[in-house]
Design a protein that fits this description.
The chain has a single domain, classed as Growth Hormone, Chain: A. Helices cover about 75% and strands about 0% of the residues. It is built from 14 helices and 2 strands. It has a two-stranded antiparallel sheet.
Length: about 400
């Protein structure tokens, strides 16, 4: 299992390096060109993958072509686009995107399985590549940079928000609406590092378990086909939970929903250690969908904390941290199982990490620009300068 997880781990290492770069490009040039280019790269990657005749060739194409395109277009660009158009309803909007992504995956996996069995994996790879280029890539043309560019306001509101920090009854969590945080300013805040640590803990546990989930069920003496069906069923169950988490996250606060979801996931992993049988295991793993439900809210918090102007770059700066654990976690879990013959240590470690993530998110508080810019203003006043940094509304 350690060798099986190697490709995934190397792809995460690449994403950790490319994340800050692609994030900066998205903020500078907009979502549309990066979405267009990333999808085209993914399509070309699958066409090249159909010609790979050994494991090394597969790794090169998957890591340096497909993974780069996918992380740019499907992970960073879509969330950046949504973050530009929504503020009060940001959590639900990102949850809709996450739910659609998982629903599409649940629908495509069985279709691709039939295609592979009937025509072979090479032809299936060619089919995916052509679909990406001629069907998915043109959809990038529908992305727009920001509502202000079209005379509109975020969330479809008739009037812009007057208060840059919203703490009204509909959304008790402070949200940066028009604050023009720069990446450098964000990196100086305690909130960025707490958010990064919480994200890293959550992804370390979720990513590792997800990669090994079918193998874990196989270890529990569940037939591999039944295990695959269970994973597909969990993906379907996660869709409405993701939407509910987004809806209520906008109303009662995202950190509360995240902490509750991650605590549920931790309990799930502890229960799996002692559970046997198809139905009991499926019921136990239903709690693990709490991590799935919280994923979109995790990224919505980046926009809540630091606004819209540098969202993709700030999120990209988190990539080296969480991808470093994704690079190590699945591979280490595979070698632990190869060495011990049991997934018990992996499940317990995953539960502990999820509990730690739940605690960390409860300690997250929104920063304010005045805390960062006040020293600059004071310094300029001392020198007799009559200039001050701009803190008003910005248009992306």
């Amino acid at each position: 299992m350690g060798a099986t997880a190697l490709a995934f781990g190397l792809a995460r290492a690449e994403n950790g390096v490319i994340g800050p770069i692609s994030g900066w490009l998205i903020d500078k040039y907009g979502v549309r060109p990066l979405m267009f280019a990333g999808t085209f790269i993914v399509g070309i990657g699958y066409l090249l993958l159909s010609r790979a005749d050994n494991f090394i060739a597969f790794l090169v194409v998957y890591i340096f072509v497909i993974s780069i395109g996918a992380s740019t277009s499907f992970m960073q660009a879509t969330s950046a686009g949504i973050n530009s158009w929504f503020i009060r309803k940001r959590g639900f909007a990102m949850s809709v995107n996450a739910a659609a992504f998982r629903l599409g995956g649940a629908a495509m996996v069985p279709i691709l399985s039939v295609f592979v069995l009937k025509y072979g994996w090479q032809n299936a790879s060619i089919g995916i590549g052509l679909m990406m280029i001629f069907l998915v890539m043109p959809m990038a043309l529908f992305f727009r940079r920001s509502p202000e560019a079209y005379g509109l306001n975020p969330d479809g509101d008739p009037d812009p928000h007057e208060d840059p920090l919203s703490t009204d009854g509909d959304n008790p969590a402070p949200i940066a609406t028009y604050d023009s945080w720069t990446t450098k300013e964000a990196l100086k805040t305690r909130a960025f590092w707490i958010l990064s640590i919480g994200t890293m803990l959550r992804i370390a546990a979720h990513g590792t378990i997800f990669v090994h989930l079918i193998a874990i069920l196989d270890w529990k003496d569940i037939d591999r086909q039944v295990a695959a069906n269970m994973v597909g069923g969990l993906a379907l169950v996660a869709v409405p939970l993701i939407l509910l988490a987004g809806y209520y996250g906008d109303r009662i606060g995202r950190t509360k929903i995240l902490s509750m979801g991650y605590a549920m996931s931790a309990i799930s992993l502890f229960i799996v250690v002692f559970t046997e049988g198809t139905i009991p295991l499926f019921l136990a793993l239903l709690l693990f969908t709490g991590s799935e439900a919280g994923s979109a809210l995790n990224w919505a918090l980046v926009g809540d904390m630091f606004g819209r102007k540098s969202f993709a770059t700030i999120r990209g700066m988190m990539a080296p941290l969480y991808n470093s654990v994704l690079m190590v976690g699945p591979v280490a879990a595979g070698f632990v199982f190869d060495w011990t013959g049991t997934y018990t240590p992996v499940l317990i470690a995953g539960g502990v990490l999820m509990l730690a993530a739940a605690v960390v998110f409860l300690r997250l508080e929104a920063p304010t620009l005045s805390q960062i810019r006040q020293p600059i203003e004071s310094s300029e006043s001392a020198m007799g300068s009559d200039t001050s940094p701009t803190t008003g509304p910005t248009v992306d």
